[in-house]
C-alpha cells in the first residue's frame, strides 16, 4: 500500500516506523528541510531502528495520506496536491471545519505517545488505541497488520470532543505550572482547577448532546501518562506556538454559540496565550 505520511515530527516518524515495515511509505517534510532527515530513526522499547520511509518534500499520488502536522500548519498542507483518502490526526477540533474537494476525510484519535529526540528521531513512549471514523468506511487491516491498535469509531465527533476535553484540562494546567501529567491529579490545588474546568466542559458537551465522563477520563489519562510532559508544555519550553487555539479556542467558540459560561477554561486559554507571547 502506498502511503503518504505528512509531517516529520514525533508522530509522523512514529507512524512511519510502524507502517514502513509492510507498506511503501513516503514521509513528507517541510520544503527545504529534507536534507535534515538523512537518518530517520525511531526508538521503541529501548531499541533504536531505521525508519523505512522515503523522505520527500512534495505530496505524491498514494492510496492514503495521513496528515500528522500541528493544527495550525494544516492550511499549508491543504494547498498541496492532496487527493483521495486522508486521515487527519490533530489535537483539538479545528480540523473538523476543513473543506477540500477531491478528498475523503477521516479523523483519528490516538493515545500513542511520541516525543522528538532530535531532528529525524522520534521516541515512542507509549502505545494505545488508534480510533478512526469519518466519511464512509475504511479497511483498517493495514494498520493492525503493522502493530497499530486500530479501532473503527461509529461516532468520531464524540471521540474528538472527548480527546479535546481531556487535552483542554491537562495540557494548559501542566504548561502553566510546568509539571508532569501525574501532578494534575496528585496536587490538591491543581486537582481543584482541573475538576472546575471539567465541570464547565461537561456542561458544554451535555448541551451539545454528548455525555463524556470527562472526570474519569482525565484521571485515567493522568495515571497512564503520568511521567509524560504534555505536548503543549514541550512546545512552550521550545519557544514554539502551541495548539491552544485548536483545543480550548475552538471549545470556547462552541460555548459562545450555545451560551455556556466557561470562566475557568477562559482563564487557562488566556494564560497560555500570554505564555506563548512571552516565550516562557
SSE map:
Blueprint: E1 2-6, H1 10-19, E2 24-28, E3 41-44, E4 47-50, E5 54-56, E6 64-67, H2 74-78, E7 84-88, E8 103-110, E9 113-118, E10 121-126, E11 129-134, H3 141-144, E12 149-152, H4 156-177, H5 183-186, H6 188-207, H7 214-224, H8 231-237, H9 244-257, H10 263-278
Parallel strand pairs: 1-2, 1-6, 2-5, 3-10, 6-7, 7-8, 11-12
Antiparallel strand pairs: 3-4, 8-11, 9-10
Gap between N and C termini: 43 Å
Shape: globular
In sequence order, what are the helices and strands, one letter per element?
EHEEEEEHEEEEEHEHHHHHHH
Strand order of the largest sheet: 5-2-1-6-7-8-11-12
Compact description:
By secondary structure, this protein is α/β, with parallel strands linked by helices.
Provide a descriptive summary of the structure in words:
- The chain is α/β, with parallel strands linked by helices and 280 residues long.
- Helices cover 40% and strands 21% of the residues.
- The chain has helices at residues 10-19, 74-78, 141-144, 156-177, 183-186, 188-207, 214-224, 231-237, 244-257, 263-278, and strands spanning 2-6, 24-28, 41-44, 47-50, 54-56, 64-67, 84-88, 103-110, 113-118, 121-126, 129-134, 149-152.
- It has an 8-stranded mixed sheet. Strands 4-3-10-9 form a 4-stranded mixed sheet, with helices on one face.
- The radius of gyration is 18 Å and the shape is globular.
Amino acid at each position: 500500500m502506498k502511503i503518504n505520511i505528512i509531517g516529520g515530527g514525533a508522530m509522523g516518524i512514529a507512524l512511519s516506523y510502524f507502517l514502513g515495515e509492510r507498506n511503501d511509505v513516503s514521509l513528507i517534510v517541510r520544503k527545504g528541510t529534507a536534507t535534515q532527515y538523512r537518518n530517520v530513526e525511531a526508538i521503541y522499547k529501548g531499541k533504536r531502528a531505521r525508519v523505512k520511509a522515503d523522505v520527500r518534500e512534495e505530496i505524491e499520488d498514494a492510496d492514503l495520506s495521513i496528515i500528522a502536522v500541528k493544527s495550525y500548519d494544516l492550511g499549508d498542507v491543504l494547498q498541496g496536491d492532496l487527493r483521495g483518502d486522508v486521515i487527519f490526526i490533530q489535537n483539538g477540533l479545528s480540523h473538523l471545519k476543513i473543506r477540500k474537494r477531491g478528498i475523503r476525510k477521516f479523523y483519528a484519535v490516538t493515545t500513542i505517545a511520541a516525543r522528538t529526540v532530535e531532528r529525524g528521531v522520534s521516541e515512542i513512549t507509549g502505545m494505545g488505541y488508534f480510533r478512526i471514523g469519518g466519511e464512509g468506511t475504511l479497511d483498517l487491516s493495514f494498520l493492525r497488520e503493522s502493530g497499530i491498535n486500530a479501532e473503527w469509531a461509529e461516532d468520531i465527533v464524540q471521540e474528538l470532543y472527548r480527546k479535546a476535553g481531556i487535552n483542554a484540562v491537562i495540557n494548559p494546567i501542566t504548561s502553566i505550572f510546568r509539571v508532569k501529567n501525574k501532578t494534575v491529579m496528585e496536587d490538591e490545588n491543581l486537582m481543584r482547577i482541573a475538576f472546575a474546568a471539567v465541570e464547565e466542559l461537561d456542561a458544554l458537551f451535555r448541551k451539545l448532546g454528548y455525555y463524556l465522563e470527562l472526570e474519569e477520563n482525565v484521571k485515567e489519562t493522568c495515571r497512564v501518562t503520568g511521567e509524560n510532559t504534555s505536548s503543549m508544555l514541550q512546545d512552550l519550553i521550545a519557544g514554539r506556538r502551541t495548539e491552544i487555539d485548536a483545543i480550548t479556542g475552538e471549545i470556547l467558540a462552541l460555548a459562545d454559540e450555545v451560551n455556556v459560561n466557561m470562566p475557568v477554561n477562559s482563564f487557562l486559554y488566556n494564560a497560555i496565550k500570554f505564555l506563548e507571547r512571552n516565550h516562557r
